[in-house]
Amino acid sequence: MRIARDLSSLRAEAARLGPIALVPTMGALHEGHLSLIRAARREVAAMGGAVAASIFVNPLQFGPNEDLSRYPRDEAGDLAALEGAGCDLAWLPSVEAMYPPGRATAIEVGGPSEGWEGTARPGHFRGVATVCAKLFLQTGARVAMFGEKDWQQLQVIRRMVADLDLPLRIVGCPTVREADGLAMSSRNRFLSPAERHQAARLFAALTETATALGAGQPAAAALAAARARLAAEGFGLDYLALVEPESLRETDSLPGRLIAAARLGSVRLLDNIAAG
Ligand code: PAF
């Protein structure tokens, strides 16, 4: 696996490797990320070229009171994991290389950025969209893989790519879960053993709600019951909602996407599943 740390070596490697299937990450890799690398390998088998992954903890997508400084970092472990999963090129820009002094451009996506994570984390999707557009242009990727775990992020990226006519395809990949259903996330390591045990209830609540909706229960009642259950179980619920899958607008009809964000101790869990 080749490693590029500056833009000129990245461009030289990308020109040599041919069409790129990109997996953007912030490192602290787990099985969810490695499933994206394997999905990228399948894309490359069909189109030729190579798999690239970026590791960049993007300061632009963290708010002033968020966990940028404690975001887990393990460069050596990440590089070994990428190589083991079949990645050909790792792109590790510095903050200065990504955001040179004097930078004055950002990408603002409306529509699916609004509400939910957009409300809970003002500026978050501006940071995500800006860094992803830069990663797409820096690598010249033909295809990029994103996990469905961050459902709203996936819709924001799809909207940006469509609106800006960016010449690449976005592939959404299924959420990878622990045996008890908890969606894998780099932040799960901060859960205490008791919180870790409790965390699986979020997916269970989503599944129970989807089942109730599928059986014909009105959305308002099914959601209210699930919110009450989660609150009683000790979650600090930011939202649990049924939304249109692409626009993220709230809905009461199926098919939809059930999305949730809930706090357990210092960890904010995000999850979502299809409903209907
Ligand atoms: O999902 C993530 O890890 C990040 O938001 C991404 C897409 C790598 C952009 O920094």
UniProtKB/TrEMBL annotation:
Q: Known catalysed reaction(s)? A: (R)-pantoate + beta-alanine + ATP = (R)-pantothenate + AMP + diphosphate + H(+)
Where along this sequence does the record place binding of ATP?
26-33, 147-150, 176, 184-187
Q: Would you name any one GO CC term?
A: cytosol
Question: Can you tell me which residues bind (R)-pantoate?
Answer: 61, 153
Query: Is Ligase among this UniProt entry's keywords?
Result: yes
Q: Which Pfam families match?
A: Pantoate_ligase
Catalytic residues (UniProt)? 33 (proton donor)
Keywords attached to this Swiss-Prot or TrEMBL record, sorted alphabetically, are: ATP-binding, Cytoplasm, Ligase, Nucleotide-binding, Pantothenate biosynthesis
**Where this protein primarily resides, as one coarse class?**
cytoplasm
UniProt cross-references to InterPro entries, sorted A to Z = Pantoate_ligase, Pantoate_ligase_C, Rossmann-like_a/b/a_fold
Q: Name one GO biological process term.
A: pantothenate biosynthetic process
Give the molecular function GO annotations.
Answer: ATP binding; pantoate-beta-alanine ligase activity
The metabolic or biological pathway listed in the UniProt record of this protein is: Cofactor biosynthesis; (R)-pantothenate biosynthesis; (R)-pantothenate from (R)-pantoate and beta-alanine: step 1/1
Q: Which Gene3D superfamilies match?
A: HUPs (3.40.50.620), Pantoate-beta-alanine ligase, C-terminal domain (3.30.1300.10)
What the entry lists under NCBIfam families is as follows: panC (TIGR00018)
Q: What else is known?
A: The reaction proceeds by a bi uni uni bi ping pong mechanism.
| Similarity section | Belongs to the pantothenate synthetase family.
What job does this protein perform?
Answer: Catalyzes the condensation of pantoate with beta-alanine in an ATP-dependent reaction via a pantoyl-adenylate intermediate.
Name of the protein in its database record: Pantothenate synthetase
GN (gene name): panC
